């Protein structure tokens, strides 16, 4: 099949490379001439493990091309995917900004010739696909096309794997022709017996928002439980393990921390609330999820202040990790963008490091932030270390070396990657999330015998 993908960002580039890997002929289109030129030379606009290799391989095979012109690919395409960005909070009202979607629709509509299936890949509010169809008819009344929704479910840091090995594929379409084309497109996944859900257009659009809102709910829930654990002397890691072993619940997304971020959860939870409001439906659980997430970031600032005796004024704080999660350079809605400015406002000096995110961080964080070339340089002479993102290289930090670099052996672990007892033995004043300082045995012993798991001293 011939495929045109409008938008060469995170979703468009991963999807384009993935479809090419399936054996289809793909052209990724983006109006950003500089971005396209760089991609053609092998410099990708995002960091995503495995993406550079899959792009290179399919470019060399002639299945993956790039262009700035709709006319280069849309007229001959069997399917056109709209994968442009939908930024959060249009004019601050919480609604997804669809200006890029509609702009792309008008341009592609003018170049449609023969029958084409137009597919919305971007995350968009319910009803957007039908609005896109209306724009196409307005711009090109004679166009022969169908409209469909095919939301993405890609995890940043694991997007290539997720595209090639998804939990499911959701197809929202109405015509038999459109459904048949999309099933053919995803034939390689059918051979792997990956579930494909074929449903209505509005159902597919809402499935994306509902999925992200539910995952965000799990994160906010476990963060609230973590806060309670600190007060009652319980260990949230063991609570989460005890919950997650119930197959109805599952352990994933039950890791406490400084709150969720990224390009999806913050934007999509707020957009879902806006959709519900427009239709007169209460979404009180999602409202609470958003409120808890914002409160969690503020709580982390208090935790850091308390670790330093109640004030960060005049203190040098080394921050390890800036991106919202490891294995990505994405800084969008990262907790660091809230926590670091709050510490600066209270008189702290911030020296930060991130394996992939510092270029983006420099654009988004206050100019007072100092950036270090490696994690040890960031920690030299610091009054405390705050671990914000759980990159693998931080998990393997040399604790003995770290302790010699610090003015004070204070370590605030917002991702719970170390064991309290291990850190105390290494000579650190250790602070984590949802684990009482009195619990010295956390995670020290875990034995499995058939269906029995024992956690404790």
The poorly predicted ranges are: 440-450
State the shape.
globular
Query: What is the CATH fold-level name of the largest domain?
Result: Rossmann fold
Tell me the name of the CATH class of the largest domain: Alpha Beta
Radius of gyration: 24 Å
Query: Structural class, please?
Result: alpha/beta
Profile the largest sheet: 6 strands, parallel
Distance between the termini: 60 Å
- Portion of residues in beta strands equals 5-15%
Mean pLDDT: 93
Number of domains: 2
Structural commentary:
The chain has 457 residues and is an alpha/beta fold. The chain folds into 2 domains: 2-199, Rossmann fold (3-Layer(aba) Sandwich); 210-431, Rossmann fold (3-Layer(aba) Sandwich). Helices cover 42% and strands 15% of the residues. The protein is built from 18 helices and 16 strands. The chain has helices at residues 10-21, 33-40, 51-60, 99-109, 128-139, 159-164, 176-185, 187-191, 201-232, 236-244, 265-278, 284-307, 336-345, 358-364, 375-379, 392-395, 399-405, 420-425; strands at residues 2-6, 25-29, 64-67, 79-82, 116-120, 145-149, 169-172, 196-199, 316-320, 349-353, 370-371, 384-387, 410-413, 429-431, 446-449, 452-455. A 6-stranded parallel β-sheet has the order 3-2-1-4-5-6, sandwiched between helices. Strand 1, helix 1 and strand 2 (25-29) form a beta-alpha-beta unit. Helix 1 packs across helix 3 (51-60). The protein starts with a strand and ends with a strand.
